[in-house]
Write a structure and sequence with these properties.
The strands form two sheets. The chain has a nine-stranded mixed β-sheet. It has a six-stranded parallel β-sheet with strand order 3-2-1-4-5-6, sandwiched between helices. It has two domains: about 140 residues, Rossmann fold (3-Layer(aba) Sandwich); about 160 residues, Dihydrodipicolinate Reductase, domain 2, CATH 3.30.360. α4 runs parallel beside α5, α5 runs antiparallel to α11 and α8 packs across α11. By secondary structure, it is an alpha/beta fold.
């Protein structure tokens, strides 16, 4: 079995990584946590797991195949660097870093050391995203004209946790949270981003909790992305318009907002709309645990880095877009996206 260490057992480590690792059949053997309650939780949920107090103790655990970094975002680079220097393959939860230059530094370090590195972009495995990609692949919408995606929540009183208290440099705010998913998805669908215009606000938290970005991809295609924690009436999760109709997922008028039926399985909650005509869209099944199955397969392959499910250079580009979005919002102008490690010409 693939032996895994996990840095952090908070909402991400306990809520996402540990369950997916178990489902994928990997062996979670060690967890880093200095919180007694979380340490007890880790032992209860993962029989036989060893809980250690810090990263140095984790590195000393024998025969680790890979370590998952699920610490607060502002510490991802510090933890990933230490693991790569120790020669241990690393999965870093998104965002891989808080800016593109730090992210590129990790990519360079991993390449220089010959140690595999990948990024936990779990939303690539969502049923709704699998369905959207299938629609685009089959050309159901005709000639594409615009993609709009959003992630709205209603949290007028923010949660009391590090993500809401942290500055952007420390990993706080929606750009480094929900937008890393949205940007990753639209780059996969429509290619790299050339320019960005952004409007950002921080109404209730230290970093931004209300965001809008307009992207122009290198082929000229346009996407609009937004995320908010202060939206009392959420808009559509996705609206993709083409010459043959529009795909709509969710709306402020009470439509379902995700591809799930009453039992939590795939449903028919997306719609292909052509004026007064509306056709239900069957959701594709997609298993988030496949991410870790693919990590295990990559580690056993002749070229582990090439076989990883997420190329970390994708995450560098996403952070370059976010960096440009911050400049755009501050200056009120369209900004070119410059991705470290790539030829600007």
């Amino acid at each position: 079995m693939t032996r895994v260490g996990l840095v952090g057992y908070g909402s991400s480590g306990a809520g996402f990584h540990a369950p997916l690792l178990r489902e994928a059949g990997l062996d979670l053997v060690a967890v880093v946590s200095g919180n007694p309650e979380r340490a007890d939780q880790a032992r209860a949920e993962n029989p036989g797991v060893v809980v250690v107090p810090d990263l140095a103790a984790l590195v000393a655990v024998p025969d680790l195949d890979v370590v998952v970094v699920a610490s607060p975002s502002g510490r991802h680079v510090e933890h990933a660097e230490a693991l790569l220097e120790a020669g241990i393959a690393v999965v870093v939860d998104k965002p891989i870093a808080t800016d593109a230059h730090q992210a590129q530094g990790l990519v360079d370090l991993a390449a220089g050391r010959g140690v595999p590195l990948t990024v936990f972009q779990n939303r690539r495995y969502d049923p709704e995203f699998a369905t959207i990609r299938d629609l685009l692949h089959r050309g159901v919408l005709g000639e594409l004209r615009r993609t709009e995606m959003r992630w709205d929540r209603w949290r007028p009183v923010p949660k009391d946790r590090w993500r809401e208290r942290a500055t952007a440099a420390e990993g706080g705010g929606l750009l480094l949270d929900l937008h890393t998913h949205l940007l990753d998805q639209v780059v996969l669908m429509h290619g790299p981003v050339a320019t960005v215009y952004a409007e950002l606000a921080a109404w209730t938290v230290t970093a931004e909790d209300d965001t809008f970005v307009a992207l122009r991809h290198t082929d000229g295609y346009s996407t609009h992305l937004s995320a908010s924690s202060v939206a009392g009436a959420p808009g559509p999760r996705a609206r993709i318009t083409g010459s043959a109709g529009t795909f709509l997922l969710g709306s402020a008028g009470g439509e379902p907002t995700a591809f799930h039926d009453a039992d939590g399985g795939p449903g028919q909650h997306g719609w292909l709309v052509r004026g007064e005509e509306r056709e239900a869209v069957l959701a594709h099944s997609s298993d988030p645990a496949d991410f870790y199955r693919e990590v295990a397969a990559a580690l056993a392959s002749p070229d582990p880095q090439e076989s990883m499910p997420v190329d970390p250079r994708d995450a560098v580009h996403v952070l370059a877009v976010i960096d440009a979005a911050r400049i755009s919002a501050a200056d009120g102008r369209v900004v070119d996206v410059i991705t470290p490690g790539e030829d600007p010409h």
